């Protein structure tokens, strides 16, 4: 597992600067790896030191400049997280506050589950979906961010979410898009056989040749020996039977080249998508995993069409994004499979079985090679796919971060091989990436306008242009963007989504003129239904920033905030947002799902939870109200321990009666690692109205007892008349 950055001083993307920014003319690099070590029993080894490791690049020893042992906090198989949307589930409502706050939960993992639907057979897809349902429900931690991507879908990672309902919906939409590479007329040759034949495997050639010669409808079926000689080009072998076999072998090789070329076209599509997914994870911090589920695919290994360059590009993508690929062979999940050898026609005893074994090995080699070369491993031969996926998560509970400056500073674009050894610990297994592609100065020139200047900035997007921008994959690097979408129902608009955006301005290309700092930023957003269709017109705004020095310094720290309201009917919607500098290439983006409930159904329902904080310090007399100045923190959700966490939400469809106020109660809980660590006393839900408009439920909680880290605020509402229980979760960070 390896990252490569230009001149970082510490472990972390925020410390990366380009060579030109660091020192003109300096082209040094720091190569960063994360290394997993296991013992003979397969368990993680956690107690090694810098002196235990030896690192080589292209066989030459390298000096470690940084080293850190990392252990994940929390259990290997955390309890499932509650959904972010309102639910009819019934979490416990303690009568008194829980125990004092403990340590925050395990760090966030970012997991892209890549379902290779171009190379999964129908029966295996059913088992895949069943296992993914269990994986999402049981094995993911509450802070894990997950995306479901496919080889037939749009490029990159469209969304990393904690929303389990969104993940389950994505799993249900999975379907087989298996690429069918048809054999030539009169032949039963498969693409896997074709690769074996072009590798020079005699078993595959013998089987295909026999089928070619004996199968009804073949070009050689029923052919006389003399015709076979003529078809083979007129050669005169010692045996006319040999002549027929050799003529058939020549035709077999011709067909194999055509069949393999078609299969490699689909394999290239899968590899390209894996490459896109890995590169789209580059700007995401923390642990990044790509879990590849596939029957396997061909890469032309050992043939003249071998796709080595595509495999090395994927390794390089994993290297530069800091992600690791794990592969799971879906063949073991059902009796159905992908490509296999021929059936039905006569063949010498044991020949077909030998070819079948070679075919299965081909697919395993591709998956294991891709996983091993990026620092992961292959899980195969199991009917418990979910258990295999869990093993992949557990593999990231302990690892070693290290970095080195390569002694080879040539920027020639060539592949550098990396090896990590443990000379003093025989029997331990080391896994990390096998290398990276060196930068290539021939490909790094800026793309300028023909005149030598940058092309002029395009005008603000019109609706058609906005649609085109939003239809493309959401970029994950460039301008950092935080998107939060909340639901509420208020007259006169009714049900609506509140879209909040925070854009980090530090990465903009600021221009200095007349003592002021200038930059341009454009936000483009849109709403899409669950089938991907647009809902309503795009929205957004163009910002022409023209700031004094002090304003610029403040903007760099605070960022830019934008808010928009979108009226929506009941349903599940995807909100997409792209930030861009109109004159330049850098992009940033984010995706968020929002559930708009149907209040007409009459069920107890909650709005989203809206957060704010006070400027008061802990222990201040104004803590419980009394004119505090509130600060909206709904987008970033960051708090200091000295601040109060204020929350508001609306409770809908409360059945009013003589004892309505006392029959509906609300409790606030704080969770860490999915478990409650603090709670308020249950309090009555009061139905107050002003000018015919329902007022929100409001309260506050102190944070001084919490240690810095990530938490969840859960608001639970119970209607004791109807026995209905609903809740809403919102995450926040204590700094």
Main attributes of the structure:
alpha+beta; Immunoglobulin-like; Rossmann fold; six-stranded mixed β-sheet; 13 helices; 23% helix; 31% strand; disordered N terminus
Helix-and-strand structural type: alpha+beta
Give me the count of strands.
36
Which parts are unreliable, with pLDDT below 50 for 5 consecutive residues or more? 1-27, 74-106, 216-226, 228-241, 333-338, 340-345, 443-460, 615-628
> What would you give as the CATH superfamily of the largest domain?
von Willebrand factor, type A domain
Give a description of the structure.
- The protein is 23% helix and 31% strand.
- The protein is α+β, with helices and mostly antiparallel strands and 735 residues long.
- The protein has 5 domains: 2-72 and 398-443, Immunoglobulin-like; 110-180 and 262-377, von Willebrand factor, type A domain (Rossmann fold, 3-Layer(aba) Sandwich), CATH 3.40.50; 191-261, no CATH class; 475-596, Immunoglobulin-like (Sandwich), CATH 2.60.40; 599-735, Immunoglobulin-like.
- Strands 26, 29, 30, 31, 35 and 36 form a 6-stranded mixed β-sheet that branches.
- Helix 2 (122-139) packs across helix 10 (385-394) and helix 7 (240-280) packs parallel to helix 8.
- It is globular, with a radius of gyration of 30 Å.
- The two termini are 30 Å apart.
């Amino acid at each position: 597992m390896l990252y490569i950055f230009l001149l970082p001083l510490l472990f972390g993307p925020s410390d990366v600067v380009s060579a030109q920014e660091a020192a003109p003319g300096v082209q040094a690099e720091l190569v960063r790896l994360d290394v997993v070590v296991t013992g003979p029993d397969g368990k993680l080894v956690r107690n090694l030191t810098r002196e235990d490791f030896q690192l080589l690049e292209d066989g030459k020893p390298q000096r470690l400049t940084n080293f850190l042992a990392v252990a994940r906090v929390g259990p290997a198989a955390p309890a499932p997280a509650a959904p972010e949307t309102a639910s009819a589930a019934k979490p416990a409502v303690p009568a008194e506050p829980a125990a004092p706050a403990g340590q925050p939960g395990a760090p966030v993992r970012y997991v892209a589950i890549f379902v290779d639907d171009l190379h999964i057979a129908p029966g295996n897809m059913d088992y895949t979906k069943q296992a993914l349902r269990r994986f999402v429900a049981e094995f993911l931690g509450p802070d894990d961010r997950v995306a479901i991507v496919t080889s037939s879908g749009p490029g990159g990672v469209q969304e990393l979410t904690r929303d389990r309902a969104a993940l389950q919906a994505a799993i249900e939409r999975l379907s087989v898009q298996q690429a069918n590479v048809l054999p030539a007329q009169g032949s039963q040759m498969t693409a896997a056989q074709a690769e074996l034949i072009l590798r020079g495997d005699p078993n595959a050639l013998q089987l295909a040749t026999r089928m070619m010669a004996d199968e009804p409808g073949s070009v050689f079926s029923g052919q006389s020996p003399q015709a076979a000689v003529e078809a083979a080009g007129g050669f005169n072998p010692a045996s006319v039977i040999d002549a027929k076999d050799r003529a058939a072998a020549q035709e077999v090789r011709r067909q194999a080249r055509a069949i393999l070329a078609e299969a490699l076209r689909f394999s290239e599509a899968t590899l390209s998508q894996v490459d896109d997914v890995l590169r789209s994870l580059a700007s995401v911090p923390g642990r990044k995993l790509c879990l590849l589920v596939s029957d396997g695919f061909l890469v032309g290994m050992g043939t003249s069409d071998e796709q080595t360059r595509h495999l090395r590009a994927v390794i390089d993508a994993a290297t530069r994004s800091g992600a690791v690929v794990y592969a799971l062979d879906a063949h073991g999940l059902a009796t159905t499979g992908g490509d296999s050898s021929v059936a039905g026609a006569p063949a010498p005893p044991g020949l077909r079985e030998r070819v079948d074994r070679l075919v299965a090995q081909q697919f395993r080699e591709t998956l294991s090679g891709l996983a091993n070369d990026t620092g992961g491993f292959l899980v195969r031969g199991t009917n418990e796919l979910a258990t295999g996926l869990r093993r992949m998560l557990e593999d990231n509970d302990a690892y070693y971060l290290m970095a080195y400056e390569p002694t080879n500073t040539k920027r020639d674009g060539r592949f550098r091989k990396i090896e990590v050894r443990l000379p003093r610990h025989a029997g331990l297994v080391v896994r990390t990436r096998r290398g990276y592609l060196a930068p290539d100065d021939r490909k790094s020139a800026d793309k300028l306008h023909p005149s030598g200047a940058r092309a002029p900035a395009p005008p603000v997007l019109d609706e058609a242009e906005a649609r085109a921008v939003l239809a493309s994959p959401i970029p994950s690097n460039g301008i950092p963007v935080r998107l939060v979408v909340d639901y509420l129902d208020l007259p006169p608009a009714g049900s609506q989504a509140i879209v909040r955006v925070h854009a980090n301005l530090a990465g903009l290309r600021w221009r200095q003129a007349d003592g002021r700092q200038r930059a341009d930023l454009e936000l483009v957003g849109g709403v899409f239904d669950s089938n991907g269709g647009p809902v309503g017109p795009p929205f957004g705004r163009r910002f022409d920033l023209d700031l004094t020095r002090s304003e610029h310094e403040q903007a760099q720290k605070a960022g830019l905030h934008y808010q928009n309201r979108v009226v929506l009917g009941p349903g599940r919607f995807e909100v997409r947002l792209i930030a861009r500098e109109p004159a330049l290439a850098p992009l940033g983006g984010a995706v968020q799902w929002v559930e708009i409930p149907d209040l007409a159904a009459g069920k107890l329902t909650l709005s989203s939870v809206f957060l704010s904080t006070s400027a008061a310090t802990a222990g201040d007399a104004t803590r419980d109200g009394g004119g505090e100045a509130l600060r909206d923190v709904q987008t970033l959700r960051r708090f200091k321990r000295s601040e109060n966490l204020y929350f508001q939400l609306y409770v809908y469809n409360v059945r009013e009666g003589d004892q309505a106020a006392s029959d509906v109660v609300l409790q606030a809980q704080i969770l860490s690692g999915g478990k409650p660590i603090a709670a308020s006393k249950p309090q009555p839900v009061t139905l107050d109205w002003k000018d015919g408009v329902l007022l929100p439920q409001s309260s506050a909680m102190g944070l001084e007892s919490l240690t810095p880290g990530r938490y969840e605020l859960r608001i639970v509402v119970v209607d004791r008349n109807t026995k209905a229980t609903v809740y809403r979760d919102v995450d926040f960070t204590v700094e």
